[in-house]
Amino acid sequence: MDPTRSAELYHAGRERMADAVRDLSVDDLDRQVPACPQWSVHSLVSHLTGVAADFVVGNVVGAPRPPWTAVQVERRRNLPMAEVLDEWATVGPQLEKLIVDGTTSHPLVCNPYVDAAVHEADLHGAIGSGRPPTELRLATLDWMLDEPGPLTVITPDGTYSAGSDGPPTVAHTSSYELFRAIFGRRSTAQILEWEWDSPEHAMTWSRELAILPQTSVPLND
Prior knowledge:
The protein is an alpha+beta fold. The protein has eleven helices and six strands. Strands 4-3-5-6 form a four-stranded mixed beta sheet. Strands 1-2 form a two-stranded antiparallel ribbon. Helix 1 packs antiparallel against helix 5 (about 80-100), helix 3 packs across helix 4 (about 65-75) and helix 3 (about 40-55) runs parallel beside helix 5 (about 80-100). The protein is globular and about 50 Å long. The two termini are about 25 Å apart. About 35% of the residues are buried. The mean pLDDT is about 95.
């Protein structure tokens, strides 16, 4: 993606999420995020802030695995949300400038809107703040599913390939459901509900599609 567009997508999502949580009560900030059950709303925003802070200083060793994200959350656990948002408002623009300046080629650093889009949907599932815009979801799908694969997923917005090994087959679903499923936010049972051209292969792909650990509990967001 064009660096300027990447920075713009990230900036807009950052602003939407900051606005959504800025005036939440302590109880709402402590609410569990269904798609990230180890995290509260406060933890999720702490992670997003920590991602920006780490990317700006080049701390990418271990990204984006759990030990790396756990440090981000723990460092901000006892901070008021206002302070976390103030930090994000500082490091976020620095990250956006880093992207536009083209001084890094790290794929995660260059495309932070991808992780932010996933967590914006997670946040919506926790507090009803609104799904990420269609443009952002489709940009994320284009970035994630840009290689040929044996699974073809047809949505009203486009056709996508997924997987590196598995039986060739075709599935039909919405772009939003595909967006959530590839990041582990849909259960096997939910993916099985898609329209499959080869039902005998549906079980295999319903377990193999997600690039992150798949939820065992159906999520509706």
